[in-house]
Amino acid sequence: MYKITFCLFAIFSFFESSWAQDIHWSQFNDNQLFQNPGNAGHFDGDYRFIGNYRDQWRSVSVPFTTFSVSADAHRKNIGFGLQIFNDQAGDGKLSTTEVQGTLSYLLKFRETSPHVFRPGISIGMNHRQVNWDAFTFNSQYTGYIFDPNAATNENFQSSRKTNLNIGIGFIHEWKQNQRIKITSGLGLFNLNQPNQGFYNEVVKRDQRWNLFSKISIKLSEKWAIIPSLSYTQQGIYRELNFGSSARLNLGNSELNKALYFGVWNRNKDAAFVTLGYDYSNLFFGLSYDINHSKLVPASNNRGGVEISIRYIINKFKPKKIIHRVCPDYI
Length: 330
Hints:
Blueprint: H1 2-13, H2 32-35, E1 47-56, E2 64-75, E3 78-89, E4 94-105, E5 115-129, E6 160-175, E7 180-189, E8 208-218, E9 223-234, E10 237-249, E11 257-266, E12 270-279, E13 282-291, H3 296-299, E14 302-313
Antiparallel strand pairs: 1-2, 1-14, 2-3, 3-4, 4-5, 5-6, 6-7, 7-8, 8-9, 9-10, 10-11, 11-12, 12-13, 13-14
């Protein structure tokens, strides 16, 4: 497993033909249901709630804003969850909203096995909408001035589109001991390639597949490192994120308290730094992108800021006490 994982890191680090899309998550390890449907229910606790927000390209144009909220839980071997995702971009406020229900199943060949497999499936709705009135056209230029009230002479068939969307995936976790744990996964989304065109012409949404791997290595009682990578391909677009975060344990056996900081790179697009803080069942993460692509003359190296919040609920199960009544023979 060591050789396979580190080979993946080496191969993707030199994958020169990759480039990033405008819409993505820098904190890809902190948006588990978006990352892979097999992650549903894969956590210690009873209920998990996650929120993510991203603001990008504010220094270049109308900002791209993205947010998602998700909740998941597990009952015995079944994990289930719900995610709502929204993205808005450009002058026409092109909006994409997805609502996905997710199911996963825990496969463990024996109770003491160090290997855990979780296949999963997500089924939901994809809705896209654009505001045509926010655009301007050449026909509104009279020859002397621009008249925003002039007719556009454009005929749009529709301003919104709603489709079914299906995705599948699986994750594999291998825990050698209390010091080392490797989690990897492969996901395939937009299986049915829904039509996202606003005209009569069919414009199929490209399938998207994602490969991720992360290693948690405990160096001491205080320190741990978590190197990770995520590779995504959708049509002609490719995105590679790789780097590592470090964890400094500030708590004790009764209180989970830790500080995270990391340095990452998105190939041919941006470098980004991350900060995180664990306190009991609450996690807060913050990251900032430093753009180094060909857009630097316009962006001045400024990319986007991202926030993630996670909260896990552990139900208290009181110990059942049985009272015995001794018979009275007197």
